[in-house]
Amino acid sequence: MPALPLPALHASHAGCWLRAANGATRALGKGEAVMAAADTPLLMVNAPLVATRLGYPDLSGLDLLELFAFVHPARFCVPTAKGLAHALGLEEPADGDDVPRFLQEAAGALLETCESPEWPEREGAWSALQSLARLRWPWAGVIAPHIRQPERAEKWLFSRLPEWEESGERPQPAQVTLDDGDVQAQLARLTGEGAEKRQGQRDYSSAVAGIFAPRTRREAPHMLLAQAGTGIGKTLGYLAPASLWAKASGGTVWVSTFTKNLQRQLRSESARAWPEERPDGSRPVVIRKGRENYLCLLNLEDALQGGFGGRAAVLAQLVARWAAYSRDGDMIGGDLPGWLGTLFRSRAIRSLTDQRGECVYAGCPHYRKCFIEHASRASAQADLVIANHALVMVNAARGRDHAQRPARIIFDEGHHVFEAADSTFSAALTGMEAIELKRWLLGPERGSKGRRRGLAARLADVSSYDEQGGKAISAACHAAEALPGGGWLQRLADGEPSGPVEELLAAVRSLTYARDESGGQEAGYGIETEAAQLEGDFVERAQAAAMALAEIRQPLIRLGVRLEAVQEDAPDWLDSQGRARLEGARHSLAWRIEMLAAWEALLERLGGPANPDFVDWLAVDRSDAREYDIGIHRHFLDPMKPFAQTVLEGAHGVMLTSATLCDRGTEGEDWNSAIARSGAAYIDTAPQKVQAESPFDYASRAEVLIVTDVKKGDLAGLAGAYARIVEASGGGVLGLFTAIRRLRAVHGRIADRLARAGLPLFAQHVDPIDTGTLVDIFRDDPHASLLGTDALRDGVDVPGHSLRCVVMEQVPWPKPSILHRARRAAGGGSTYDDRIIRARLAQAFGRLIRSKQDSGHFIVLSPAFPSRLLSAFPAGTPVTRLTLEEALHRVAAGVVINERDALGAQGE
């Protein structure tokens, strides 16, 4: 099909170009581009990003990404003109002024697909288009002539989705001891014929087999700490014994990760050991995530039937298109394009998931088709479950089915287990958390849209059947009126709190502002103060709030007992689905009761002696000086203590593995730090330890450059240094910042300059694109560079020429928070800080060399980089202190070497 004859616009930091419907392309200014877009709908790609480049947030038009999401739901595409070209099999545009012509060509290709009898996603398209036309979707009139009406009416989405089937409980696994010869043979099969045999990988795989041996004592799992350098092949190294054990024992192995990127990699690698499906159609490998990651079909139905309006309603229709073709309904990191939600500049994607634990389980009309229930039941029968650290911990702590709790666990990215445990086992009594509890109990406040219902509505049949249960529900709902309601932040600011919990939060706010000395008040950041030396009035308010919370918790406990009694002595009307619904309600109740008990324990401690196991503090959370939450926080001083009690003691075999599991001190690897951050100190067994060195030649492939003449606090000098490094490297730079404000300032100063040189610059917290998609764009373009914060320091996997230089703006010192101060005091003072910094440096350096062919520079812009931290880098890596000018010469020389190596690799 010929190019679509509609005007097209492209805007970047390098300039703006407009192409007429049947004319030539011309350059124009931002103001003229905005006027053109306001006059008529223009073709563009990634409208929110174009709007950011033009400084015109209300920009709208015919976004080709929306058309792509309609025509090819659940298909991957990098959201750029180049990425669209690759996804459609078209020649990519040569440069910026060629993009508008390409957009017309790409639109034509997509419309041609709609007319093709081989269009694989045709089913449901015509019906969806009718709904989108009623919503005045800009593309609807353009597409309509190209999609024929089907001869038979298309099925409604909810009737097309498959149902899950019940299956019997899997028997407990057989007791198996793996033979090392079998493990090595399986490893050879997985790595493939002709693959390089790495002794480090073989030794690693043998060590992993030990965690699958039969346990000899209760609450004493086999435990392995395994440090495996980048490139050792640890994924296949542990999948070899895991797959052997699962087949021989009939049991399930859980592999837990911290990043979605590794989950995707694991799904791909696991295909070497397991088929996609068993002969009976079940899946031997399943990815499990928290409920908040999956599409909630009831929320979607509500959105499709009027719960969403405007652009959000269009998004709901596109999500419904995706749901019909999705592999597993995973909206966050699954096959839903990460950029789809950002195109609509709303939080509608999150609204389509179960964010608040409000699931009604078997009470839902879509229960048998629920993506979450599909995943849960599939994991119960799986050989391998790929999950994340938080889910594994929550499942161990309060899983609904004891038989599904993980017993053989491999924690990949094991250096993140500490922070995952820190988050999982913490407590926070804040205004936002209290409001969520109130809404769960009472339902939405007046004027709120959506399907949310209160506890009384969800359990109306129980309250009408069981008098005591009905009274418990009424008592809990009455007591919930003491919790904060809408407008609570404004009432606190006005000095007019309502109810005992709001009065306590007002006291927290006042005391935090009075005592905070962090400097965050002036900078607009969040502020905090320790929960100590509290006056009598504050303690009295805490006690009043604790009593109000107890008034909610006690009837909820009674309700849980009554639900159990109704299940045991079931009335005639309680069928199997009703039982499942009550079981789900009991699970949700237990979660809230546990949370309320933690809040009460936190408040009862205020004014009394400190508990050495905990760190408590008061906080006002702010963003750009705007308050968004206030509360009291409690964290374990050492979160590995509850982790050991909850996860390790119930397991039979556990491994923590990572390339940066141990601290690299001046005297070599420090296993004591790895043991301390694994929870092994709290169980009655000594962990085994294994180390496999990276096969990469860091001495000749990487270089650490410490730049000594960029002064700390000099924003102009910092921005200039970043720009010159990107120019010397020709792009391919990952810039890591410790503060969002400095990141934005640097980006704002240099993005236009670099773009004019053909070096696009993207940034977290600046570009309206999710982090995963930013990394996709960066990976796809070797001339692009990316600026980011902590989320990009770890878990970013960009092998090859696209990443050839990592730049840190300064030494990544720990944030001096109250929690850090307490752990620093308990962990050895400055040596504790040094361990954290070395770990961060090692993780950041690990982004640079991802394969044997990779090479590049790791640059730290620090005039006074402490020598004691240099051990963070792999042994043999050259480290040089030098000026910026000298560093630029080395980077430019390294680019020539990189390009020569790349050409050589292509020749081979």
TrEMBL record:
PROSITE patterns in UniProt: HELICASE_ATP_BIND_2
Key words of the record: ATP-binding, Helicase, Hydrolase, Nucleotide-binding
Pfam family, one: Helicase_C_2
Protein name: ATP-dependent DNA helicase
All copies of domain Helicase ATP-binding, residue ranges: 187-462
Annotated GO MF terms: ATP binding; DNA helicase activity; hydrolase activity, acting on acid anhydrides, in phosphorus-containing anhydrides; nucleic acid binding
Organism ancestry: Bacteria, Pseudomonadati, Pseudomonadota, Alphaproteobacteria, Sphingomonadales
Keyword Transferase: no
Organism: Alteraurantiacibacter aquimixticola
Source species, domain of life: Bacteria
Family from the record: Belongs to the helicase family. DinG subfamily.
BP terms from Gene Ontology: nucleobase-containing compound metabolic process
